[in-house]
Amino acid sequence: MVLLSQAIAYMGDDFMFQLYGKYQDMALAVKNPCHLNMAACLIKLKRYDEAIGVDRRREKPKALFRRGKAKAELGQMDSAREDFRKAQKYAPDDNAIRRELRAIAEQEKAVYQKQKEMYKGMFVVREESGGKGKSRNWLIMLWQWLVSLFSRVFGRHRVKAD
């Protein structure tokens, strides 16, 4: 990995700016795999933030795949899915991309099921056993009706004090 970082540093923007024509193409043919391999190494080392930052400007399928993989490991599922879908546009037959998109969908489904179980019954009104729940509901409705009736009757004849 040290050699990769040295190669990337050596072929920085200042160096690439000085090249032209076939020399620039030759330098890019060396520089691009260095970025891809550096991202792969960082993912294996579980240094996902660094793997995302290796080369943000690249729109090649491998670069998008590796960036998406790192984002997925960090839990940035929406952004990872976006990178995988972009990569899939460039390489529609790639099984690894399909597998990662399927893994994201399954993970989101599992999270949804876990949340569903966690919040299940949270907003459900439970009746008490023994039939007391129905009698209490009737009493509450009667009380609300009486309060409403009194407020209407006594609310009309109120004298305003100025």
From TrEMBL:
PROSITE patterns in alphabetical order: TPR (PS50005)
Keyword annotations of the record: Repeat, TPR repeat
Xref: Gene3D superfamilies: Tetratricopeptide repeat domain (1.25.40.10)
Ranges occupied by TPR repeats: 61-94
Pfam families referenced in this protein's UniProt entry, alphabetically: TPR_2 (PF07719)
The keyword Repeat is annotated on this UniProt entry: yes
PANTHER family per UniProt: ARYL HYDROCARBON RECEPTOR INTERACTING PROTEIN RELATED, TPR_REGION DOMAIN-CONTAINING PROTEIN
Name recorded for this polypeptide: Peptidylprolyl isomerase
